[in-house]
Amino acid sequence: MEIREIPTRDAEQEWIAKYRRALDATAPIQPSRVERLRRAASGACGEIVAVIRGIWSRWIEAKSFKTDLKVTMARVQELPAPTRKASAGLAGEDASEKAC
To answer: Is 66 exposed, middle or buried (0-12, 13-18, 19+ CB in 10 A)?
Structure first.
């Protein structure tokens, strides 16, 4: 059976000083393998999401452009063709303005 000694005040002060020196050390702490794996997986997921988001936005833009193009073409087809009277009337007005 071992007998434990009661630590003296000096021993406690030495332990505290040793503990503080260990905390003050500027040695970098290496992340665990699990932490490194988690960071790598998180980064890869972020990259995949960014690529999918880019593809999705380009697809939406292309789809809306095609829809806008169809609507524009339909409007162009609905416009009435100019008649000779309208163009002749404009020409007559220009001629009368030049005569004055």
So the answer is: exposed
Both tokens of 76, joined, read 């162009």
Give the global pTM: 0.39
Give CA–CA dist 67/42, Å, rounded.
37
- The span from the CA of 74 to the CA of 56, in Å, is 27
pLDDT tens readout for residues 3-15: 666 656 788 888 8
Residue holding tokens 């040793």? Answer: 18
Residue 42 and residue 45: Cα distance in Å, rounded? 5
Separation of alpha carbons 19 and 69, rounded Å: 73
Q: What is the DSSP letter of 83?
A: P
CA distance 47 to 94: 65
Coil, helix or strand at residue 6: coil
